[in-house]
From TrEMBL, chain A:
<keyword id="KW-0670">Pyruvate</keyword>
<feature type="compositionally biased region" description="Basic and acidic residues">
    <location>
        <begin position="93"/>
        <end position="104"/>
    </location>
</feature>
<protein>
    <submittedName>
        <fullName>Pyruvate synthase</fullName>
    </submittedName>
</protein>
<dbReference type="InterPro" id="IPR011898">
    <property type="entry name" value="PorD_KorD"/>
</dbReference>
<dbReference type="GO" id="GO:0016625">
    <property type="term" value="F:oxidoreductase activity, acting on the aldehyde or oxo group of donors, iron-sulfur protein as acceptor"/>
</dbReference>
<dbReference type="InterPro" id="IPR017896">
    <property type="entry name" value="4Fe4S_Fe-S-bd"/>
</dbReference>
<feature type="domain" description="4Fe-4S ferredoxin-type">
    <location>
        <begin position="66"/>
        <end position="95"/>
    </location>
</feature>
<keyword id="KW-0411">Iron-sulfur</keyword>
<keyword id="KW-0004">4Fe-4S</keyword>
UniProtKB/TrEMBL annotation, chain B:
<dbReference type="GO" id="GO:0019164">
    <property type="term" value="F:pyruvate synthase activity"/>
</dbReference>
<comment type="subunit">
    <text>Heterotetramer of one alpha, one beta, one delta and one gamma chain.</text>
</comment>
<keyword id="KW-0670">Pyruvate</keyword>
<feature type="domain" description="Pyruvate flavodoxin/ferredoxin oxidoreductase pyrimidine binding">
    <location>
        <begin position="16"/>
        <end position="240"/>
    </location>
</feature>
<dbReference type="GO" id="GO:0006979">
    <property type="term" value="P:response to oxidative stress"/>
</dbReference>
<dbReference type="InterPro" id="IPR053390">
    <property type="entry name" value="Pyruvate_synthase_PorA"/>
</dbReference>
<dbReference type="InterPro" id="IPR029061">
    <property type="entry name" value="THDP-binding"/>
</dbReference>
<dbReference type="InterPro" id="IPR050722">
    <property type="entry name" value="Pyruvate:ferred/Flavod_OxRd"/>
</dbReference>
<dbReference type="InterPro" id="IPR033412">
    <property type="entry name" value="PFOR_II"/>
</dbReference>
Amino acid sequence: MPELKGWKELPIGGIIVEPGNAKQYKTGTWRVLRPVYQPENCIHCMQCWLYCPDQAIVVEIVDGKPKMKGYNYYYCKGCGLCANVCPRSIDPKTKQPAPEEKRAIIMRPETDFAEE
Amino acid sequence: MPTKQALTGAEAIAYAMKQINPDVVAAYPITPQTPVVEYFAKYVADGVVDTEMIPVESEHSAMSACVGAAAAGARAFTATAAVGLALMHEIVYIAASLRLPIVMAVANRALSGPINIHCDHSDAMAERDSGWIQLWAENVQEAYDFTVMAYRIGEHPDVRLPVMINFDGFIISHGVEVLETLDDDVVKNFVGKPIKMYSLLDTDHPVTYGPLDLYDYYFEHKRQQIEAMKHVPRVFKQVAEEFAKISGRKYDLVEEYMTDDAEYIMIALGSTAGTIKHTIKELRAEGKKVGLVKPWVFRPFPKFELQRILNGRKGVIVLDRSASFGAEAPLYEAVKSALYEVAVRPQLGSYVYGLGGRDITPAHIRQAFEDAFKGYLIADEERYLGLRE
């Protein structure tokens, strides 16, 4: 959390005088579960990017094609939508949930990363 | 050259607003305020002013339109009364919280129910903690003068708060009195150009009004409002001093009438102060040492002035034109609280009078004074003037 300002330093009436400052608003602090990217299983289908309700999926264009590069946890709220739509979450043969080591995205409790 | 005119209070306020020529007036009719905006609408229709007149569908919208206009940097005005003010309540707080120097005339009237359209102060008292500056006029002249002064007080960079001009419904709003009006250019020069801060129309410095303000900053913004109110007495006195130069009429936070040697002092807001002055003259002729203190400014409450004036007097009688159910009447409560710290506390008495337009006569006022002369004032007892037992 940034240092909060005292009443003498703030513009009156709650008026926001700096345009576009929502950029500074860290929206990833609500997260309870964290998506973890396992690039070795990713097929770069971009479903996660398409469904992400925020700007949490980092994409890079390589040879004219988009490549999933992991997460921007500054924005990610841990909704798990990406893991849910990821085609690698389902075993294509059994149509059952794939084992974790085969998935491209797994959801982990945020508490596992507490020391970071 | 000041001119003498015979006008109603409503007409006098509309006349002052004509001279100020505000940018926006939003209005919804409600008795007894309606003639204020009716007279003003005529000025707009006749092209005497270039104000944008917005006839809205409710008082809630009238205040909302004023908030929008004031946030854009415009001078905004509206007038209301009673249940109209109550319907505005939500936006009344927002106007003060967003620090918008709107001016609103309130023709004080009883709040329902049962339905009553007559004079009473319960409408304004319901808004006393909304963060508005409250000025209280005794007569048509004061209603006019406060209207001329209001924007100067509210727009001051140390204040930035809306101003409510209270004038008793029907008694002042519809009663015709002779008053002295100032020349148009004198008022125009006095009021000057609006002092704009954080204007929405200033596209070089874009701002956002009214964002979500939770536990991390809301408290700090309320503290700023508290601070703004602390600057009001100084700013009011400055503006009043300048106003005295153009009008010859000197205002302060409170008016003192025959208080120099007074042993017994009565305190009241609004038009009843005139009846009290009349009664005081009669009692003085009988050798009674009596006086009146009339708060011209009720919010911020002139605590230090009252402490200075009332310390060591024999008796203080507070008259309230509104009740606070289950507690002491609002003006009395504030006076009593102020006197906690004075060196020599006077005897205190609370009298509620005139609810719903009930007449208050010199005989009633004399009755309260006589209780005081007999030493029969009890701080914890609320009494009633003009009530049938």
